[in-house]
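Deliverable D4.2, example record:
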Amino acid sequence: SPFEDNVALLKTDRQPGYGAGEGAAVKLVVFSDFQCPFCQKEEQELRKNIPAAFGDKVRVYFTDFPLTSIHPWAMKGSIAGRCLYRQSEAAFWNYHDWAYQNQKDVTLENFDAKLQDWAKQQNLDAARIAACMNDKDAAAEVEKTMAQGHELAVSATPTLFLNGRKLEGGV
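Output generated by the structure prediction step:
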C-alpha cells in the first residue's frame, strides 16, 4: 500500500469509533476539533451518512486535534471528550453531538458551566467529570493524539485518513 507508513502511525486503540467492528476493511480516522466550524459540518455528515450507507464495512474513529492557537476552548472540549469516553463510549458520542450542535454558544469562559449543565441533563456524574477535567491524564491523552497528528503532518481540521490515505479539509 502506498499509505503503509500512515497506517503504521495511525493508532486507533482507545479512540471512540462507530460503524463496523474493529476489524473493518475500511477505516476512516478523523482528526477533528470541537470548536472548528468545518469539523462541525463534516462530523454531522459523517455521523449521518457513513452508518446508513456503509455501516457494516466502514469503521470511523474520532481523534482529537484541537487547534489551540485559533480555538480558545478546543483543548477543554477535547479533554471533556476524553473524560466522557472514560465513562462510556455512548456518553462520548452524546457529548460529541452536543458540543458540535452548541459550538456557537460555548466560550472559554462558559465552557465548564455549560458542560456541567449538560452532564446533569444527561444524568452523568458531573463531579466525576469535573475531577477528570482537572486530572493531567486526560490532557496527556489529548496531547498524545495531537503528537500523532503532527507525525502525520496534520495541520488543519478536519483531516481524514481513509485506510491511510490523507484527505485534508471537508470531503
